[in-house]
């Protein structure tokens, strides 16, 4: 099926030529067979530009010729979709925004099945399941760690990627000393979402699949010597030592990918999904771009990378074409190359590691998926996080606050920020659980 792309109210919509238009419509083809048109809303705006969605939907229609898929790609995905979710008009199939409260899943999304049964086939079901029911399946699994231009490190005399925060900071200093025109660590402060990756490394850095669950009962998880403090301290030290971009408030996400590919940046904290995007920015130097674990070693002497689901595919509970939407969901997850093409690990159990993770696999880094919350506490971390307004894993304000402090834009100290975090977290635990 050939798709034509139209710009509608800031949204790029790929509209099939099979005739039906609008969400949840039906029509018939020349043979009298019913053709359903469903709307799939997603964040892959780059695929609108490079024709990937054309290719994917043409392949989908080879199997399901009577399902016409209208693609809508949105740049500010989470914000715009959450606004649309105030009505019933948020497509038939969509990528579930990350900060929907678990207890609200059933209000917005169709149940996909029993979690225990689906877990025999898929990874990453913890995030979008509630009370034993799954409402989303990950498009792919991502590891979170460091996207690295290893040639930059080698040029500075560093052959192996550091395994401790101290060695990491020292390596960044060596890069800066070797070439002042290179930014050792690029924070992407202004992008509006990238700094959340510093939160997502927590379980891998700890080597503990129950780390997030344990945070719900720890009144002071940001104290000196604890994992969250060490992660944030690494960001703070790099910033205070001038090892990040000169003016963080003017960072440019798209340009940063090009600069990392071209050796003007040493490292960025991101998900493994970013590797192919950066490699595509300079295919001649693609072999220089590797994916490494956050520079911490767990108490057992191993290194881990936390792995979790990317955007989950969910079905609008208000959809009039849920069966067709489920066919597209299953095809994307089970049969398409979506995960591979995006540098991720397929959510299907037993799938092959993507190229972006094979370097880490060869180095002995183990992938770690966090354990689900205990029954009855599925929303506890989310509730405490929301109550504290720290935005762990969802907003960048507090990470920006650390950087502002480190570079002298504010007068508060790192210790004062961590004390504030502990106070807010402790108060939130008490407010939410009464402990």
Automatic annotation (TrEMBL):
KW Signal (keyword) present: yes
Keyword Ligase applies: no
Pfam families documented for this protein: SBP_bac_1
UniProt cross-references to Gene3D superfamilies, sorted A to Z: Periplasmic binding protein-like II
InterPro entries, per database record: Bact_solute-bd_prot1, SBP
Keywords: Cell membrane, Lipoprotein, Membrane, Palmitate, Signal
Signal peptide span: 1-20
Protein name in the entry: Extracellular solute-binding protein
Annotated organism of origin: Enterococcus casseliflavus EC20
């Amino acid at each position: 099926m050939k798709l034509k792309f139209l710009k509608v109210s800031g949204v790029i919509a790929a509209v099939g030529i099979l005739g039906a238009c609008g969400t949840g419509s039906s029509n018939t083809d020349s043979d009298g067979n019913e053709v359903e048109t469903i709307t799939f809303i997603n964040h892959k705006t780059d695929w609108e530009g490079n024709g990937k969605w054309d290719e994917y939907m043409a392949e989908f229609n080879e199997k399901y010729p009577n399902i016409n898929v209208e693609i809508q790609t949105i740049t500010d995905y989470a914000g715009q979709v959450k606004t649309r979710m105030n009505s019933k008009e948020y497509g038939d199939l969509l990528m579930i925004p990350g900060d929907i409260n678990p207890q609200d899943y059933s209000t917005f999304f169709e149940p996909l099945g029993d979690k225990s049964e689906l877990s025999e086939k898929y990874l990453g079901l913890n995030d979008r399941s509630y009370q034993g029911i799954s409402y989303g399946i990950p498009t792919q699994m991502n590891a979170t760690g460091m996207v690295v231009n290893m040639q930059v490190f080698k040029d500075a005399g560093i052959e192996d990627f550091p395994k401790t925060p101290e060695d990491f900071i020292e390596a960044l200093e060596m890069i800066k000393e070797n070439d002042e025109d290179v930014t050792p660590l690029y924070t992407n402060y202004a992008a509006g979402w990238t700094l959340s990756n510093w939160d997502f490394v927590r379980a891998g850095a700890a080597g503990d699949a129950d780390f997030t669950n344990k945070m719900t009962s720890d009144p002071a998880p940001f104290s000196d010597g604890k994992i969250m403090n060490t992660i944030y301290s690494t960001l703070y030290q790099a910033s205070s030592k001038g090892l990040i971009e000169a003016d963080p408030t003017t960072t440019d996400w798209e340009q940063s990918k090009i600069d990392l590919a071209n050796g003007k940046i040493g490292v960025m904290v991101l998900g493994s999904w970013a590797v192919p995007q950066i490699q595509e920015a300079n295919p001649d130097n693609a072999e220089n771009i590797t994916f490494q674990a956050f520079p911490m070693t767990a108490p057992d002497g191993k290194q881990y990378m936390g792995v979790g689901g990317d955007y989950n595919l969910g079905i609008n509970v208000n959809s009039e074409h849920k069966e067709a939407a489920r066919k597209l969901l299953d095809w994307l997850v089970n049969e398409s190359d979506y995960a591979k093409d995006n540098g991720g690990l397929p959510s299907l159990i037993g799938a092959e590691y993507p190229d972006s993770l094979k370097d880490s696999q060869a180095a002995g880094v183990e992938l770690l998926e966090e354990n689900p919350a205990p029954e009855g506490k599925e929303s506890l971390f989310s509730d405490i996080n929301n109550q504290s307004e720290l935005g762990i894993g969802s907003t960048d304000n507090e990470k920006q606050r650390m950087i502002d402090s480190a570079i002298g834009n504010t007068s508060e100290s790192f210790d004062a920020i961590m004390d504030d975090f502990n106070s807010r977290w402790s108060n939130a635990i008490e407010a939410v659980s009464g402990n």
